[in-house]
């Protein structure tokens, strides 16, 4: 995947997190996802991409970061069930905004996004598309580390360049 396809996700993440928290996260070195089943993330917001390209976008973070984001947003919960519901809403919305804003930057490809799905649990598994590279953009922030993963079918994107 080319930088022209990945940078919109980097920019959308930086903008959202700055607007949401008042602080800009620090992006790390982009890399290819190597370990599919062993990771440190407790929650993932997953969005499908359809249209002239296909793929998945995911934002992944720890429960601690979710707690800190809820606290910073003055959103409180009484029990774990309410925390899990708020986590689903928060991470789903974050994934939706990042994907929507990033894809609007590459709108010439006529891409659409699906409704977000949130997966919770230690070492949860995402069914990544086969034979697509998965680019990981790691971030560090005042609220904790997180990452955005982008997997778009490159052969379809090339035909529109």
What is the number of independent domains?
1
**How helical, in percent, are the residues?**
25-40%
Query: What is the CATH H-level superfamily?
Result: CheC-like
The end-to-end distance, rounded to whole angstroms, is 12 Å
Q: Based on the coordinates given, report the CATH architecture.
A: 3-Layer(aba) Sandwich
Arithmetic mean pLDDT: 88
Q: Helical stretch count?
A: 4
What is the molecular shape? globular
Over all CA atoms, what is the radius of gyration?
15 Å
- CATH fold-type name: Chemotaxis protein chec
Write the H/E string, N to C. HEEEEHHEEEEH
Name of the top-level CATH class: Alpha Beta
Strand count, sense and closure of the main sheet?
Answer: 8 strands, antiparallel
| Strand elements, count | 8
Low-confidence regions: none
Beta-strand portion reads 15-25%
Decide which structural class fits the backbone: alpha+beta
What tags apply to this protein structure?
single chain; 161 residues; Chemotaxis protein chec; 8-stranded antiparallel β-sheet; 4 helices; 8 strands; 25% strand
How would you characterize this protein structure?
- There is one protein chain.
- The chain has 161 residues and is of the alpha+beta class.
- The chain has one domain (3-158): CheC-like (Chemotaxis protein chec).
- Helix content is 37%, strand content 25%.
- The protein has four helices and eight strands; from the N terminus they run αββββααββββα.
- It has helices at 3-21, 63-72, 80-105, 154-158; strands spanning 26-27, 31-32, 43-51, 55-61, 111-113, 117-120, 135-140, 146-152.
- Strands 1, 2, 3, 4, 5, 6, 7 and 8 form an eight-stranded antiparallel β-sheet that branches.
- Strand 3 (43-51) and strand 4 form a beta hairpin.
- Helix 1 packs across helix 3 and helix 2 (63-72) crosses helix 3 (80-105).
- The longest helix is centred in the middle third of the chain and has 26 residues, at 80-105.
- It starts with a helix and ends with a helix.
- The mean pLDDT is 88.
